[in-house]
Amino acid sequence: MDKLDGEVLVSDFKQIKLEKEAQKNWDLFYKRNSTNFFKDRHWTTREFEELKACREFASQQLVLLEAGCGVGNCIFPLLEDDLNIFVYACDFSPRAVEFVKKNPLYSPERCCAFQCDLTKDDLRENVPEGSVDVITLIFVLSAVHPDKMKLVLQNISRVLKPGGIALFRDYGLHDHAMLRFKSGSKLGENFYVRQDGTRSYFFSKDFLAELFEEVGLQPVTNDYVLRETVNKKEGLCVPRVFLQSKFTKPSQSQTLRGFEASIMRDTED
């Protein structure tokens, strides 16, 4: 049970202000922290074998979109590790995108970084429709207002190839970060604001599956990942709960088979 369930929500006025200032707050976050806040994510190819395995042949160039790339902690390890990959990378924060472009590993031949509000800017202005093999959404959707999450998924779905896959990892329900929020932080069900004005949503499996299925992406896996983070300074062992999931865009043949099966059922009824 959420310890803040009975708490009065942050006022509508402040919630509207937070939504309006969401980009500014993330830009300030990157101004304060530069490229030093998040560690490089060398675990992505271990956790998501699709980054290796989804090629039809060994020499195929993999096209990837990282939606919400931050300063590149995920994409640069991938670009170093895999010489046959092209990455589109976008972020809400113009400052984060500039950090990506200034990275010594950034090369326009292998990477295209651009600023984008995924809730309203059409990705197809920078990424050809149906051209992407793999999309990563890693600790990104949690920063979006729940009412706008479906818009993000509709946006990414348009550039994903039929048969392509979306890889998701984010905060799960009852994660330690959720339990640490103090009184006055709650914006809505499973949705909170940090002291710096950035916001975070904590996902259940059912809510996430429903979101993706509403935009036509089908679940492959959708499970909680339990980890423990050791805070050596304070001598604490902190329980972490993440949700790690994979969703696929049906190929045309799969869509056709599903349509035919639906007609058969209707006929039998």
UniProtKB/TrEMBL annotation:
UniProt-recorded name of the protein: tRNA N(3)-cytidine methyltransferase
Enzyme's top EC category: transferase
GO terms under cellular component: cytoplasm; nucleus
Subcellular location: Cytoplasm; Nucleus
Subunit structure: Monomer. Interacts with SARS1/SerRS; interaction is mediated via tRNA(Ser) and is required for N(3)-methylcytidine methylation.
EC annotation from Swiss-Prot or TrEMBL: 2.1.1.-
Any one biological process term the GO annotation gives: tRNA methylation
Family: Belongs to the methyltransferase superfamily. METL family.
Biological function: S-adenosyl-L-methionine-dependent methyltransferase that mediates N(3)-methylcytidine modification of residue 32 of the tRNA anticodon loop of tRNA(Ser), including tRNA(Ser)(UGA) and tRNA(Ser)(GCU). Interaction with SARS1/SerRS is required for N(3)-methylcytidine methylation.
Gene3D superfamilies the UniProt entry points to: Vaccinia Virus protein VP39 (3.40.50.150)
Catalytic reaction(s) noted: cytidine(32) in tRNA(Ser) + S-adenosyl-L-methionine = N(3)-methylcytidine(32) in tRNA(Ser) + S-adenosyl-L-homocysteine + H(+)
PANTHER family with a match to the protein in the record: METHYLTRANSFERASE-RELATED (PTHR22809), TRNA N(3)-METHYLCYTIDINE METHYLTRANSFERASE METTL6 (PTHR22809:SF5)
Annotated organism of origin: Takifugu flavidus
Molecular functions per Gene Ontology: tRNA (cytidine-3-)-methyltransferase activity
Keyword tags: Cytoplasm, Methyltransferase, Nucleus, S-adenosyl-L-methionine, Transferase, tRNA processing
Residue stretches making up the Methyltransferase type domain: 65-165
